[in-house]
Model the fold of this input.
Amino acid sequence: MPTLEQRSSGVLLHPSSLPGPHGIGDIGHEAFAFADFLAACGQTWWQMLPVGPCGQGHSPYFSSSAFAGNPLLLSLEKLCQQGLLEPADIKPLRGLSKDRVHYSAVENFKAPRLRKAFEAFESNPEHALQKDFSAFCAERRVWLDDHALFGALKQTHQGKAWMDWEPALRARQSEALAAARQSLASSIRYHQFLQFLFHRQWGELREYCRSLGLGLIGDIPIFVAGDSADVWAHPELFWLDADGRPTVVSGVPPDYFSQKGQLWGNPLYRWDVMRQDGYSWWAARLRATRERFDAVRLDHFIGFHNYWEIPAGAQDAVAGRWVPGPGEDFFRVILGALEKIEIIAEDLGMLTPEVAALRDKFAFPGMRILQFCFGEWDERHQPHKFPRRCVAYTGTHDNDTTAGWFHDPGGRSSTRTPEQIRVERENALRYLGTNGMEIHWDMIHSALKSPAHTVIILAQDLLGLDGKARMNLPGTVEGNWQWRLRPGTLTAEVAGRLALMTGAYGRGPRRWTL
Done:
């Protein structure tokens, strides 16, 4: 397997951003083609956002499950090849722009086809996948049963949050659950089937990537959505009132992105309760992640040292306070209970000496963002001073694209003033030795030649796309997570240019054995 301790590089692109005929990227043909592109460029890593079902605002960081895969990422073409759909079912979805995901249209298109595939599977007890499906359900029972029942109940309640269900189901009374499992047996099996398909298709993609020498980097959000199977099934692990509603919620204080902080709204963990059984829920979550990825970015690493607690009902994050997290005890117990897993600590934000010490105690590489290097002319923050044990990014899903950042007049992508932007831009031009005409390649070049063991390049930056291609603007709900790669834009010229830079700075591919 590849390792974060070797000199390497890769690209950040979520599968939903891939081209494809059905309104959203998926883990079918175009995903395999993108893996081929990465291999042709000499890359070692493909990094993604969380791959669970999307939640509020279609955010992958607000999922209804910490374990499940997103059915919208399933390839309909593969289902057709397996005889579960007809060719007419997978005709391209027309009338939509190719550079944005239109979630409502995609859901309306894919849902009946996924249901049809399930019905075809159920009507054929001799189907080749029946035995594997049964084995999958048995092996993943620890999370799959609750996830499937939760999904079935959500449908019968017209999508209402579980806190608004009838008291017996809300409180998970055994008689009510047994009755629901009996009356909703077919719907429960359907949700299990979707996860089985995701498991199969993901496994095929991962094995193909491995055959090319590519490792996959996943992403674990520190928190889960309140309206999720996880909170419903394990309310004792969260700070909730008697009706299942959070008493305190997550967020961060005022920062680079927002003067009023960010009010995320996730329920917060009862770390005291989790500690009593050795953080077993977290251990299961990391094991499930390790089945899909070779390394994982641990989102909001700072929150494991201390986290921003906001009273439920607050209008913004200003009224919050810092509360101690589980700290060293969590990682000592978790890492002792798991097979080796490579973790990237997302240590952006309030990086205190205590947070850095926690990160370094377990030798987790932190993150360095080139867009954050030029606000103050301090050599310690410049790319040539990056530590080896880190992952350097041109930008992340929360940043503007490099071109958008460079040309931002102020007030759109961050809390920077026009004067701060002017100084930052002048510092960048001076440091990079450029006129800024190809600022995206200048930044990629600087990242690749830095001492950082691992470099990850935003896919949008390979193409020099402006702020319209931004994936997410923190603190906002609408218009995020929609950007898609237009077909044919990752040309041989782009591949050749990246390959030359990658080779020039000793980040070429290394084959490994399993």
